[in-house]
Each structure stands twice: as structure tokens, then as C-alpha cells.
Amino acid sequence: MKYYVLVIAAVAYLAYVHGDACVQCNSATDPKCATDPENYLAKTCAVNTSICYTRVLNGNTIRGCASELDNATAVACHNELQCLICSFAEGCNRLVFPQSRSQCLQCTGNSTSDCATNVYARPTVCPTYKLGDKCYVRNDGKNKTNSFQRGCLSSAQANKLCVDETNCFTCEGVGCNFISANSTQIPVARDGAAFISSSILVIGVALAMLRWA
Ligand SMILES: *[C@@H]1O[C@H](CO)[C@@H](O)[C@H](O)[C@H]1NC(C)=O
Ligand SMILES: *[C@@H]1O[C@H](CO)[C@@H](O)[C@H](O)[C@H]1NC(C)=O
Ligand SMILES: *[C@@H]1O[C@H](CO)[C@@H](O)[C@H](O)[C@H]1NC(C)=O
Ligand SMILES: *[C@@H]1O[C@H](CO)[C@@H](O)[C@H](O)[C@H]1NC(C)=O
Ligand SMILES: *[C@@H]1O[C@H](CO)[C@@H](O)[C@H](O)[C@H]1NC(C)=O
């Protein structure tokens, strides 16, 4: 009897180790798929192979079972910057990908917040993948919620901030945006919705005055 229990346990163990399971997620709907892949459990694949992939596409990070890839993508999927297939273990597609992707201090706050004052925070993986991404610090000088920000330039630009980089401090390298909030290297940002709407108001008033003149 004991023997059977052992055999069943061994088979279960082998099924687990050689299980057909991969991490399956897409950062488009689930940002942690890009930033915290270590915390995902592998899920069973529809086809019985434990071949998994990780790829980046249009800035999103996608993980799944290799059997889902079309042939052309699967054939080209051995590139450490775009798409990689692995089969050495169940859920082997659980690593940060690409391994060299940008990491920055990422936070927002006012000018007295922890975001502004703590320059020893740990850099974290940028949620959007962009080759050559930079880190940034943005300060609009208003001392309000979110007026001080550290993060990945790709994320700021997706929100139309720091598109003109002279509005922000930018730098290249893992966690390079740890500079002190009072550094003269950080310009006062003149971009963003509040500034644009106040500019439109000023232009509107100027036009009205021209009409009266
Ligand atoms: C998957 O493969 C394992 C071992 O190779 C086998 O025991 C199992 O029955 C297979 N499952 C399916 C659904 O084909
Ligand atoms: C993809 O490759 C498999 C096996 O190599 C083949 O059976 C299948 O027909 C291919 N599909 C397409 C669309 O080329
Ligand atoms: C700045 O944020 C902190 C919390 O991070 C808050 O306690 C403080 O009141 C805020 N100050 C201003 C001026 O908004
Ligand atoms: C921001 O506001 C707080 C509270 O009103 C004040 O103590 C602090 O000096 C202000 N900081 C700057 C840089 O204006
Ligand atoms: C900048 O802030 C740091 C601490 O936050 C302080 O030690 C330093 O004196 C400040 N530098 C200037 C020029 O205000």
C-alpha cells in the first residue's frame, strides 16, 4: 500500500515538474505582467507542452504558452530583446523581460512628500517597454499633490508630460533619477494640462483685448 502511495506521489511530482504550465498574462490589462512577473503562478496550457514564451509588442509585455504563437512568431522567438521561448521548467517565463529593460524610481507626491525627499528608494521596472527609455524627474513648482514626480519617461510621455524634455530632468541608467528634489538640474515644468489651459486663457484674453482696441 505504502508503495502505491509513493508511486502516486512520484507521478504527481513529475507531472508538476514537467507540467504543461506557463505564466499567462498581458501588461496591457495587467501591468504587473511587466513589472512583477515573479509573483505569477503558472497556468496549464491548452496544448500539452511546457514550452513558454515572453515577448514585448508595442510596449506591452505578453507571457503565455508557445503553442499559442503563430508559426512565424514562434520561429523568430529567440531574441533576447523581443521574444524568447523557454522550456527548462514549468513557468519558466517568469523573469523580467527583456532582462535589460529600464528601471527608475517611480512615485508622485508634493514637494514635501517621501517621493521628493527619499532619494534612496529602490528603482522598479518600467511598466511600458521602450528600447532606450529614460528616467525623469518632473516638478511643476506648485507644491500640490502630484506636483513632484519620478518615473519612466515613456510613462510620462504617454500622459503628455515631458514630451518636450526640457520641462523635466531626464537621465539614462538604472534608477538614475535619484537626484535631490532641490537640485537646480530639475527645471520648473511648463507642460501639462493646467499650464496649457491657463495659456489658452491668456491667449483668449489677449485676443479679446485686440478686438476692443
Ligand atoms: C500530457 O502529457 C503527460 C505526460 O507527457 C500525460 O501524462 C498527460 O496525459 C498529457 N495530457 C494531455 C491532456 O494530453
Ligand atoms: C505551423 O507549423 C506546423 C508544424 O510545423 C504545421 O503543421 C502547420 O501547418 C503550420 N501552420 C501554418 C499556418 O503554417
Ligand atoms: C504633502 O503631502 C503630505 C503627504 O505626503 C501631506 O501630509 C501634506 O499635507 C502635503 N502638503 C501639501 C502642501 O499639500
Ligand atoms: C510646501 O507646502 C508646505 C505646507 O504648506 C510648506 O511647509 C513647504 O515649505 C512648502 N514647500 C515649498 C518648496 O514651497
Ligand atoms: C537640498 O536638500 C537637502 C536635503 O533634502 C539638504 O541637505 C541640502 O542642503 C539642500 N540643498 C540646497 C541647496 O538647498
UniProtKB/TrEMBL annotation:
Residues 21-93, 103-177 form the DUF753 domain. Residues 1-19 form the signal peptide. It holds the Pfam family DUF753. InterPro entries: DUF753 (IPR008472). It comes from the Eukaryota. This is Uncharacterized protein LOC105222786. Keywords: Signal.
